[in-house]
Write a structure and sequence with these properties.
Layout lengths: L2 H4 L2 H20 L10 H13 L2 E2 H8 L3 H14 L2 E5 L7 E5 L1 H23 L3 H19 L2
Helix pairs in contact: 4-5
Protein name: MarR family transcriptional regulator
InterPro entries: HTH-type_Bedaq_tolerance, HTH_MarR-typ, WH-like_DNA-bd_sf, WH_DNA-bd_sf
GO molecular function, one term: DNA-binding transcription factor activity
């Protein structure tokens, strides 16, 4: 992309989108070879590890998918032993999902591996570039939280 293209919000949006997608793919490639879970399944485990137990509907909203899709994902994670599910205490129509100890360990190992790769890449940058990325990380998180 040209410097002129980056001067527009549309140009910046395109560059950011591509860079974030490439980085996501690269980080996804850093998973342990024995980890048979999909990126989406690992995403659900990550949400549960950060936020604690949630209903299937809350998980679907957090991951921006339809509840039937989340139900399938949760059922797969139950089969692998990475999550536990139980009926909601006050609303029998809902299911509460929580991460198991095995799921917690899987998320922790995955984060260590990916963080180590990214830390090595960041070490290659100049200190001022790392500071720019530190500020950008907060801005990108803010963008990700908006509807």
């Amino acid at each position: 992309m040209t410097t002129q293209g980056l001067a527009t919000d549309a140009g910046l949006a395109s560059e950011l989108r591509l860079a974030v997608m490439r980085l996501r793919r690269r980080l996804a490639g850093e998973r342990h070879p024995d980890n048979e879970l999909s990126i989406n399944q690992m995403g659900v485990l990550g949400v549960l590890a950060r936020r604690g137990e949630m209903t299937v509907g809350e998980l679907a909203a957090a991951e921006k998918v339809q509840p039937p899709s989340m139900t399938r994902t949760v059922n797969c994670l139950v089969e692998t032993g990475d999550v536990l599910k139980r009926p909601h205490e006050s609303d029998g129509r809902q299911i509460v999902v929580e991460i198991s100890e095995q799921g917690q360990a899987r998320v922790a190992a995955d984060r260590v591996r990916r963080d180590a790769w990214l830390a090595r890449r960041l070490d290659e940058l100049a200190p001022e570039d790392r500071e720019v990325l530190r500020r950008a990380a907060a801005l990108l998180e803010s963008l990700a939280q908006k509807d």
